[in-house]
Amino acid sequence: MPGQSNAPVDQLYALIANEEDARVCKDIPEEACREVPRNFFLILAANVLTKLGDLLISPKTVLAWMMSAVGAPALVAWLVPIRESGSMVPQMVIAAWVRRKAVRKWFWTLGSFGQSVSVVGMAASVWFLEGYAAGLGIVAGLVVFSLARGFCSVAMKDVQGKCIPKTRRGRLSGLATTIGGSLTVAMTALLFWDRGDPTLGFYSLLLLLAAALWIIAGVLFASVEEFPGETGGGSNAMTEAVQSLSLLREDAPFRHFVVTRALLLCSALASPYFVVLAQKQSDVGWMLGVFLLASSLASSVSASFWGWAADTSSRRVIIRGAAMACAVCLLVGFSALIFGPDVGGAWFYPAAFFVLSIAHAGVRLGRKTYLVDMAGGNKRTDYTAVSNTVIGVLLLVTGGITAALSLISDIAVIIVLGLMGFTGMVSALRLKEVTED
Question: Which residues cross the membrane (predicted)?
């Protein structure tokens, strides 16, 4: 019941918050402060479940394998762009709609249910269709999945900003990533330990399991005690969406953040090229499992550290993550250029991928915390929507440029992305501090 004390939950939250009181609330109303411990763990559990679901339908692994298995390998190239940009580009319109509601947790719950339905549709396409019909069914399901994810992205930052104190948001994200990463380590071991090529039925069952995880996450998130907040209304969603773009012109700190975030796309875009170089060096089946394990371990060992650090200064977390990302990209790129792609033996690229994954976790968590902390009320929703929409478009553009450049040289792509990351780090140095009061 709202306002009712739950001693075990409060004590566990006090331990995580590292405070005697555990009720130091910043930037949220007093009534919401009373519900912080319970809301903290509900949001944490929902995040963990969705992170595990993301592993089970990863476009880079599971869905890509399925495309080849059903006979539609040419459609693999569309998976990652749709997965990332499909949830970002329409967010200004989504945010204009969400902003009209005083309670916004239901958008996240419906978005989670929508992702579940879309994943069931993908599984149905695999079972009942063949060839490019099955492939197009998977792509269509991924489009719906990404749109539903857009509602979750907008609503999550706003609900978290209303329900979790300013200096506890980073550790919430960090714990979710750490626990989710630990579970993905276990899942990776189950997938690749002493197993041949999994059957199509095995992967289809993974999709159904992922769908169940999103249903449970949606139910948990619906239990969050969210108090009514500010609303915006008036014009239609498209008009409001176009008007919100004026933030890029009128709000200099926000514009600077978006530019910095765009430059730091390097940490996400470089990862596949590490895998490509490793495959050229040693094309063995267990190597994919090593990369998945490296990614999961990186999240597990680094996310809580980044989360706690972001509660002190999310700006410094962005800077440190950017420095690591550009350093490892330039090291790998120039080493491969000078000594050849076979440099360093079989473990060179997985080790570099591990470091890059740690850096990406820092950049991602730091910029998420920074965005939530730099705005309040409806501005938080607008900032999230505008930045995600712009980044979604830029991701498609940058992805297209790097894809064209990769036709010339994969090594050149890594070096260019490393230089892009260095520029992003310099830009991050000029960000205003927002975490500390």
Answer: 62-82, 106-128, 134-152, 172-193, 199-222, 258-278, 284-309, 321-340, 346-363, 383-405, 411-431
Query: Which is more confidently placed, 293 or 424?
Result: 424
The per-residue pLDDT for range 346-380, each reduced to its tens digit, is: 788 889 989 998 998 899 889 888 887 887 656 77
SS3 per-residue string spanning 123-137:
HHHHHHCCHHHHHHH
CB within 8 Å of 226: residues ≥ 6 apart: 32, 39, 103, 104, 105, 159, 162, 163
Please give the structure tokens belonging to residue 332: 């790998």
Instruction: Calculate ∠ Cα 195-200-204, nearest 5°.
Output: 105
Q: What is the pLDDT of residues 17-64, one digit of tens each?
A: 655 544 456 666 666 666 677 777 888 889 889 988 887 787 766 776
Burial label for 252, CB within 10 Å (0-12, 13-18, 19+), is: exposed
